[in-house]
Design goal:
CATH architecture of the largest domain in chain B: 3-Layer(aba) Sandwich
CATH class of the largest domain in chain A: Mainly Alpha
Structural class of chain B: alpha/beta
Oligomer: heterodimer
Structural class of chain A: mainly alpha
Mean pLDDT of chain B: 86
Low-confidence stretches of chain B: 1-44
Distance between the termini of chain B: 34 Å
Strand content of chain B: 15-25%
Largest sheet of chain B: 8 strands, mixed
Largest sheet of chain A: 2 strands, antiparallel
CATH topology of the largest domain in chain B: D-Maltodextrin-Binding Protein, domain 2
Shape of chain B: globular
CATH topology of the largest domain in chain A: MetI-like fold
Chain lengths: 357, 386
């Protein structure tokens, strides 16, 4: 900053919030440019210095300005750490990925792709991987519904009937998370193995025929079937459904249910008209926390699935880390993001929580 | 698996150890390239008294149970400060890791890496490896004659094999209920959903092609290999193929998830120690042969130490220790005699010391041009479902 930025000069700012907004947007844009490598070398250093200067400027304006200026600048100052973080670690990678997804590799093992508006990557992402996209959303959707069916009653019991064991029960929900995600998934391979106790027990009680009938077992095995992949997803994401539902149920005043019953509502009616609507925000949050990561997951399909149950996450991993086709993998990632965004928008339109509060 | 206590000396790999190690490495591998990228540069000289070798898991005898492992014997004999890691799990994955670094002309940390022959060929073609200091490796004279000037390294100046082996049919006789005799049996309805195959395209496709009477050492276009791809794809669509796997098929085979799979001879030799029901079939139609090689990535700093190491492991006495533990086919002449001194029974194991007739019935996959290889990889990827 130049020395002319004297206290009098700063006081002349009639709208100090513009200083805040300007510093915020400017610094965010600069940091994105650095992260996406639009500017490199000395220019990048200069840009970084400007980002730093904008922070100094903001603080300076706040210190020099009166209480009123400080009050008006405060929101932008508080937004700044988060905004800069997002600019560098979300926005910059995102534009890099977008650019890559429209690039072409000059040769198979080339390191850098040439940016040439190659929409062919997107065409291939749809044409060659439609099955994997379909399975990803199907499996993630079924798993999400299953986590609601399993998680809701559990959260309900913990919230309303847990009594003094509430904390313990919640702890038990979270305890499996102390073990690595990978280890928990691989452990299912032993449990569900063809000679493992699950399959053997089903054989013993003669239920395997029924399980084959409903499509959970295939040719006498559970492992490497769609059911195993969906089961793995359900198991791994269940706590993400239980916890938000529990939080919203826990806030429901039991007095409301009593009041409903005083007004001659049945228990079921009170549950349906009082408890369920009040817990929907939890279900909504849980659905997002479950469905989004599940749709992009590749671990469960990798360890519990077969070549016919791969999900889009497996294909993206394969293109990035095995086939070296970074542009195509980027395009696939973008398509995945786009579809998830659309699905979430539709979902929140119908089940959104705005008018529930 | 109670037989663990009666295993021969020097073969104490437990499956659990193996899996834990691979898991830890998988996690480490995610961050390694970024770290490596930060450490470029080379000094061009013979380097200091250190050495960094990156190899496949369970591929060297460790120091345990009173036996001194090859690395410790080497450190003692040479005074070189050696680092050894097991970062390879899959050739394609490893290539994807080093490609951005070597492709920009920077050096990666290891002085020696162990790509399979076809990947070594690719690295040589791309010019991403340095010539080996062969004049300092006196024991190179012990290299098996058939490996002197291989297809992947026609001048023999860039690579020395670490171990070699075969891919054929690995099966669990408790599940199949009988000896298997041909590759076609993998496709029988009675084994539906209990058959595996390697993600290593050349081995899986190679074994099937050989069973269809195609000489894989002479393939130059995709059309010649198409029948094997068709057969594999049909099997996958019919649910015959349960899973494609890399190094991680020991458990599936031992606990009966797999009746049979396309697997590697040395693995079966190792699994048999735990589980005698696991067998290996050299198909009459032929097995694929491969070699994992030692190459120096471009800009490797410690040439002298690397030469000392290669000289050390090409000494038949040292190579025999390795062979007794890893159970693969050694590229070093005179190993059989040395192994016989350690363990006479092992020296008669046909998986480790195959006879000439068996050897004559193995083929290594032809070197494919970039475009043809891309076609193969894309077709194979489609079958593995990714």
């Amino acid at each position: 900053m130049s020395k002319s930025a004297t206290p009098t000069a700063v006081r002349r700012w009639k709208r100090p919030e513009f200083v805040g907004l300007g510093a915020l947007v400017g610094a965010g844009a600069l940091l994105t440019a650095i992260g996406a490598r639009w500017v490199t070398g000395p220019v990048a250093l200069l840009a970084l210095a400007l980002v730093f200067a904008s922070v100094v400027w903001l603080i300076f304006t706040a210190v020099i300005g009166g209480p009123d200026a400080r009050r008006r600048i405060a929101p932008y100052g508080l937004l700044k750490p988060g905004a800069l973080w997002l600019a560098l670690f979300y926005l910059a990678p995102l534009v890099t990925l977008l650019r890559l997804s429209l690039s072409t590799l000059p040769s198979r093992f080339a390191v850098d792709a040439d940016f040439d508006w190659n929409f062919g990557n997107y065409r291939r992402a749809f044409a060659d991987f439609d099955a994997q996209f379909g399975r990803a959303f199907l499996y993630a959707g079924v798993a999400t519904v299953l986590t609601i069916l399993i998680g809701y009653p559990l959260a309900y019991v913990i919230a309303f009937r847990g009594g003094r064991y509430r904390t313990l029960m919640l702890g038990l929900v979270v305890v499996p998370f102390f073990t690595s995600y990978l280890i928990r998934t691989i452990a299912w391979r032993s449990l569900l193995a063809d000679t493992g106790w699950v399959v053997q027990m089903l054989d013993f009680v003669k239920l395997s025929g029924l399980f084959e009938g409903v499509g959970i077992m295939d040719n006498g095995r559970i492992l490497q079937t769609p059911a195993a992949v969906i089961g793995g997803l359900t198991y791994n994401f269940l706590p993400f459904m239980i916890l938000p539902i529990y939080v919203s149920l826990e806030k429901v005043d039991p007095g409301l249910v009593d009041a409903a019953q005083d007004l001659y509502s049945t228990s079921a009616g009170a549950f349906r008209k009082i408890v369920v609507p009040l817990s929907l925000p939890g279900v909504f949050a849980g659905t997002l926390l479950t469905f989004i990561p599940a749709a992009g997951d590749f671990v469960n399909a990798f360890y519990l699935g077969s070549p016919s149950t791969t999900m889009i996450g497996n294909s993206i991993q394969d293109q990035f880390l095995v086939q070296n086709n970074v542009p195509l993998a980027s395009a696939m990632s973008f398509v995945l993001m786009a579809i998830i965004t659309i699905l979430v928008l539709i979902y929140s339109r119908f089940f959104g929580t705005e008018d529930l509060a | 698996m109670n037989q663990r206590s009666i295993r021969p000396k020097g073969t104490n790999l437990s499956r659990r150890q193996f899996l834990m190690r691979s898991g830890a490495l998988g996690a480490a591998g995610l961050t390694l390239p970024q770290l490596l990228a930060a450490c470029g540069g080379s000094d061009g000289g013979g380097g200091g008294n250190t050495l960094f070798f990156e190899n496949w898991p369970a591929y060297i005898d460790p120091t345990e149970d009173g036996a001194t492992g090859t690395i410790d014997r080497f450190i003692e004999a040479s005074g070189v400060d050696m680092t050894y890691t097991e970062a390879f799990n899959d050739n394609n994955e490893y290539f994807a890791k080093i490609q951005p670094i070597l492709g920009r002309g920077d050096a990666i940390d290891p002085d020696l890496i162990a790509p399979t022959s076809w990947l070594a060929g690719r690295l040589i073609g791309l010019g991403w490896v340095d010539k080996l200091p062969l004049d300092q490796i006196e024991n190179k004279k012990n290299l098996r004659d058939d490996l002197a000037k291989p297809a992947w390294d026609p001048t023999g100046e860039f690579s020395l094999p670490w171990q070699t082996g075969f891919a054929g049919i690995a099966y669990n006789i408790d599940v199949t209920g009988r000896e298997l005799t041909s590759v076609d049996e993998l496709f029988l309805p009675e084994f539906a959903g209990k058959v595996g195959a390697l993600t290593e395209m050349r081995d899986t496709i190679g074994v099937i092609l050989l069973s269809q009477g195609v000489d894989i050492s002479k393939i130059s276009s995709f059309d010649e290999a198409a029948p094997a791809f068709e057969k594999l794809e049909k099997a996958k669509n019919d649910g015959q193929i349960r899973r494609f796997h890399g190094n991680d098929y020991f458990d599936d085979l031992a606990n009966g998830n797999f009746a049979a799979t396309i697997g590697w001879s040395g693995d079966v030799a190792q699994i048999q120690l735990d589980n005698p029901a696991v067998r290996f079939l050299f198909p009459e139609s032929g097995a694929t042969s491969w070699a994992d090689t030692m190459v120096m990535p471009k800009g490797a700093k410690n040439r002298d130490s690397a030469a000392k190491w290669m000289n050390f492991v090409y000494d038949p006495v040292q190579a025999a220790q390795l062979t007794a533990w890893v159970q693969y086919v050694s590229p070093v002449k005179g190993v059989r005699e040395e192994v016989a001194k350690i363990d006479a029974e092992l020296a008669e194991n046909p998986l480790i010391f195959p006879d000439d007739a068996t050897l004559a019935n193995t083929r290594s996959f032809a070197t494919l041009s970039d475009e043809v290889e891309a076609e193969f990889d894309a077709a194979f990827s489609k079958i593995t479902g990714a």
